[in-house]
Amino acid sequence: MGTAPDPVAKLLAEYEALERAYSPGHHGVWAARRRAELVDATLEEFFERAGAPPGTAVAAVGGYGRRLLLPRSDIDLLVLHDGSDGDAVSALADGLLYPLWNAGFQVGHAVRTPLECEEACERLDVGASMLDVRRIAGDEGLVTDAAARVEAWARRDPRAFASAIGDDAARRAERFGSAAHLLEPELKEGSGGWRDLHSIWLIESAVGTELLRAREREALVGAEEFLARARSTLHLESRKQGDRLILDHQPAIARSMGFEDEPELISIDGLMRALFEHARQVEFILPALIERVLGEGRPLPDPPGSPVEMLDALATEAEEGREPSAALLDAIERIEMAEEIVWDAGTRQAFFRLLRTGDRGAGALEILDRLELLARFIPEWAGVRCRPQRDPYHRFTVDAHLTSTLRAMARSLAGDGAADDPVQAETVKQISDPDPILLGALLHDIGKNGEGGHVPVGARVVGSILDRMGVEPKVRDLVGFMVAHHLLLPDTATRRDLSDENMVLDVAAAVGSSERLAALYLLAKADAEATGPAAWTPWRRTLIRELVAKVQHVLDRGEMGMELAEELTDRVDRVRNLLGGESDPEVDRFLRRMPRSYFLNVEPARAAKHFATIAPSTGVKEVRAVHFEGIRSGTYELLVVAQDRSGLLSWIAGSLALAGMSILTAQVFTTEDGVAADLFEVEGVWEQSVPDRRWREFRGTLRRAVDGSISLERRVDEKRRWYPAPKVPAPVTVEVDNVASDFATVIEVGASDRLGLLYDITRTFADLGLDVHLAKVATYEGRVVDSFYIRDAVGRKLTDDLEEIDRALRVRLEA
Amino acid sequence: MKLVTAIVKPHRLDEVKDALREIGVNGLTTTDVEGFGRQRGHTEVYRGAEYQVDFVPKVRVEVVVDDADAQGVVDALVKAARTGKIGDGKLWVTEVEQLIRIRTGEMGPDAL
After folding, report:
1. Whole-angstrom Cα distance, residue A289 to residue A296?
2. Pairing outcome for strands A56-60 and A134-138
3. In chain A, pLDDT over 90 holds for what percent of residues?
4. Which residue of A551, A554, A555, A794 to mutate against B (max B Cβ within 10 Å)?
5. Which of A71, A157, A170, A441 could form a disulfide with A409 if both were Cys (CB 3.0 to 4.6 A apart)?
6. Least CA distance to B83: which residue of chain A?
7. What pLDDT does residue A296 have?
8. Arithmetic mean of pLDDT over chain B
9. How many alpha carbons lie under 13 Å from residue A169 in its C-beta half-sphere?
10. pTM for the full model?
């Protein structure tokens, strides 16, 4: 090599100087060109030193041919020769390549004659890289000849060329995913990345005329600079070749590139959002350009001239199942549009037409987004645009997730997938108007704008969107409801106890109607389907459906609904006020755990009076009994609180009978944590006014019955002997209903009133090991009609022999 | 070392996690699973559409612990998962022959 300074050492030193001159985040297109110049100079020197024979040349191809060398890019060389001296060419190639290889550069190379160049174009990637051929040193004529042959190859059939480029892009997209929404994108090969970007320039050069619109060219130049900087930073920070922007590198790269944490966007999300915005343009323009080359140039009879006409034209294309033509997109870009578009009836109609077309409509919205027009209709869209989601479930940015959810919802409404999902088929029937359902799907996550707490934020944001759109009140209500409650079903179904009746009633109260329930189910499904393939698992689906079915039953039976929900809220608020406080945890617990039917059946003033007896926790054998003056004179209200167990109600009923009190009505309430609050309206059998000693007797008997120290059965039977049965006994009726409730078996019993009747019924249940969860007992003119909500020992509806209960009750009552 | 595996109701998972954290368990694995035990599959009805639910959704919790801690973990798990109603699930304990922390290569109880 002689004494002259080693050119490779010089090149390495210059590379390093360039690295030092700018911080890693600032190596964009300019630095890439500088690197290419440096390598050019080194190769020129080697070419000279090698004493290259005539009829040879060295040229740059690929990215290097375009004078773009990133810090760790391959240096792709083409050694051209005229075929006259094979050995000399081989020596030349060695002289060029070895020093670079030895210094650690990645050098790609080919040795060809111009004719061989033409033949090598059989492979698209080889031909495409040679379209950028550029002479570095040697025979000018050879390079011109090779370039002309390659160009001729591409221009022979620009449509075939463009479509081959399109196929290649599709293959890469499949393999590397999209750089426009993945959280760990491939910046070079991923769709919307560096290679797609340069494919666009190649197509344009193959066609030989300017095909790109000014806006597009501007967007692409911006994308090139950004991608060059991002890739360079990645190369420099990771000290490696490789273009997958993994999470580990993102903080350092964001910092280098100048992204800082902002209140509503952390630095790495800022980096990703910027990347997605650029990559999205590339991803959008490449296929559009290919279509322009391939397209028949469908004429546009009536180009739109206003935002409404634009939406209408897009809706018409979508309804007819076509992609918007290049001519339409051209016309759209010529429309003068206000920064914020004022909605009128025409806008609304066209917008909903678009939503109703589903997949194509979502596609049209995405086109409007790429043209930066969507946020003029919905300014709030800017907050979710290109915003990454960093959780284990989501694969897409917020806005891409929203348009995917719209697509999934449209598919569900059209009956797609209904064969595998009977609940979907039925819920769709509940939907009276698809418009709010589709709009709710599109906007459900609009609150993910970085403010935090996306559900409440979404509920607020969607309000202003709907105001601006001016939709009718019915649509407004349902869309707002869907946004505010879109997590209600999935969160409740996967985290709460579905056998808890209060919980189901609360969901029913929040939902209020079958149509809203159906809307939430369809939204939960579409949301999951649009999140990722793993989100709508049989596991999740089973839980959500169970909740939907139970809530629907509650609504069907009228146990909850909009009016009842309002009444319940009102009553609970009144109880809270009567108990004098907002934030007393004891009061909160009381209001939360008592069955909803308790508050709906017991006047707030009475419930407030019960608080002191019910609220404190109860010991295993503890029984609390308090009585108040009844509503009617001579009647008393009796409240008994104890840990629930099989037999409790029978002991109370028996003790009352023994103490000389007759039960007019009874209501039994049990909390999910197993505390019974039994409420009776009683009167004295013998006295107008029940004396204290009878109450004392009642309490004493009950306490001893609970701790097992006396047998009530014998005592009641003994007492009953002295009191004759009714002369004309009414027939005993027993009805066992296992459909009326999802939480208990309902048993209705009718019989003539007699001493200890309730005791007889309830001890029959106790004998069978059954628990009375809820009961309503009423006496009308000597006839008693009771309904009991019964659960078995493990707290579920009865599954065993229901006839046995029927038989046992009749035997006891007819005796 | 022991592997404690429990099948619990999905809505008890938070309680289970908290209970185990309280007694110093610092790692566990959960999986969404489906199956049936005594609480068989059942038919559900939504607005006249009947469909069979053959498998009940549950969560499987797996914890590897030192022999000495196994009983404590079992007790905490059982307590946290119990509702007293049908379908509270099952728990079993198996012997673990070897345990390796993949990152460092630590073995046995060191890898816990």
Report:
1. 13
2. antiparallel
3. 66
4. A794
5. A441
6. A673
7. 61
8. 91
9. 30
10. 0.85
Nearest Cβ partner of B32 from A422, A425, A537?
A: A537
Structure confidence at residue A535 (pLDDT)? 80
Q: Are strands A675-684 and A661-670 parallel, antiparallel or unpaired?
A: antiparallel
Q: What is the ipTM of this complex?
A: 0.85
CA–CA distance, A716 with A718 (Å, rounded to integer): 5
Structure tokens of B33? 């699973």
Chain A residues touching residue B44 (CB < 8 angstroms): 545-546, 549
- Mean pLDDT across the stretch A69-76? 92
* Contact present, A388 and A173 (Cβ < 8 Å): no
Q: Give the pLDDT score at A1.
A: 43
> What is the rounded CA–CA span in Å between residue A465 and residue A592?
35
Name which of B47, B52, B83, B86 to mutate to probe chain A: the one with the most chain A Cβ atoms within 10 A of its Cβ.
Answer: B47
Q: Give the DSSP H/E element, type plus range, for residue A745.
A: strand A745-752
Residue that is written with structure tokens 């290679």 in the block: A195
CA-nearest of A409, A313, A416, A405 to A367 is A313
What CA–CA distance (Å, rounded) separates A169 from A162? Answer: 10
Alpha-carbon distance of A179 to A189, in angstroms, equals 9
Contacts (Cβ under 8 Å, ≥6 apart) of A407: A358, A359, A362, A530
3-state helix, strand, coil in chain A (%, to 5): 55, 10, 30
- Listed in order, strand segments (DSSP E) in A16-106 are 56-60, 75-81
Phi, psi of A475 (to 5 degrees): -65, -45
Query: Considering chain A, what percentage of its residues have pLDDT values greater than 70?
Result: 98
Q: Tell me which of A494, A550, A552 to substitute to probe the interface with B (most B C-beta atoms closer than 10 Å).
A: A494
Using CA coordinates, name the residue in chain B closest to A556: B47
Given B44, B50, B84, which is nearest A546 (Cβ)? B44
A796 inside 8 A of chain B by CB: yes
- Report the range out of A23-27, A241-245, A299-303, B43-47 with the highest average pLDDT: A241-245
Q: Which residues of B touch A545 (CB under 8 A)?
A: 44, 46, 51, 53
Query: Is residue A524 over pLDDT 60?
Result: yes
Q: Of A643, A639, A627, which Cα lies nearest the Cα of A676? A: A643
pLDDT of residue A2: 43
Summary mean pLDDT of chain A: 91
What residue type is assigned to position A460 of the chain?
R
Segment A562-608, tens digit of pLDDT: 899 999 999 999 999 999 866 688 999 999 999 999 999 899 999 99
Please name the residue that has the structure tokens 């959500």: A544
Which pair of structure tokens corresponds to residue A495?
């985290």
Which residue, chain included where needed, has tokens 């993102």? A250
What letter represents residue A374's amino acid? L
Contact between A422 and B14 using a beta-carbon 8 Å cutoff: no
pLDDT over threshold 60, residue A664: yes
> SS3 sequence, A318-367?
HHCCCCCCHHHHHHHHHCCCCCCCCCCHHHHHHHHHHHHCCHHHHHHHHH
DSSP state of A731: P
